[in-house]
Amino acid sequence: MDGTGLAARLRQEIKEDVAELGQVGLATVLVGEDPASEIYIRLKHKASEEAGIEALDHRLPATTPEDELAELVEALNEDDSVDAILVQTPLPEHIDEARIMRAIDPIKDVDGLHPFSAGQLYLGRQTLVPATPLGVMHLLEEYGIPIAGQRAVVVGRSALVGKPLALLLLQANATVTICHSRTDDLARHTLEAEILVAAVGSPGLVIAAMVKQGSTVIDVGITRTDAGVRGDVEADVADVAAYLTPVPGGVGPMTITALLGNAVRAARYRRGKLAFPRI
Ligand code: NAP
Hints:
Bound molecules: NADP nicotinamide-adenine-dinucleotide phosphate
């Protein structure tokens, strides 16, 4: 499954949406100097600029007190030129990540991590949904992969990827199993999956012997090794699966595209072009 190609096409559509809206502002906040986070922020800014989204870069030292970060988020909530706010995680240990996510106005919650956004997804009335699961759903749709009535197994249960993806698949009427580090006999579950998603961060976790013939396998994992970036899925899975996402070039570009789509969605909410359910 070609995430890069689909992402390029969708980004063209997003560019047209941005032009129609006139201006879309995405504020990113990076606390500290985590190298992986710096790469992600750089990629998000580059993609935003290419789509015509105005990306505002806020950088704070790793020692920033929690209150100061919360104040910045509140100022961005009030800033009319900001449609979407992204606070890059992980945050330094002394900062309560949940408090910072709660500080973001849900209408600008482009990462979908505010409890309001998560609750809307849980209820099946989604507003802003985390970008990686959305990107995976776009890929499944693009390739015409049947979901309703199918057995989907999601390995990983993070609030960023595994859980929201399981909820989206459930909403699309799959029968969903969520596996995690305490799952006994992982292969027993994965072998049943018509759609198998690996979102763990453990290279080579999923091998061909764990995959059902003719299934669809989505590799979300990203691990940087000396030999380059690796996913969770072994290459030999391609001999068994009908569809497989490569790493890189699969879910990664779709994640950034879905983030841009979320920024446009937030801008539409703020301009009254889409109804936002207010508390
Ligand atoms: P995370 O918060 O570390 O969650 C990993 C999940 O994997 C946890 O639920 C954990 O279970 C589970 N797990 C760990 N070892 C396992 C095992 N041996 N068998 C089954 N499950 C196991 O990570 P995340 O944020 O969800 O990200 C997952 C991966 O996706 C990472 O490699 C990350 O870099 C990548 N990622 C990629 C993109 C992209 O755009 N492609 C975006 C986001 C993340 P417990 O809950 O029991 O600990």
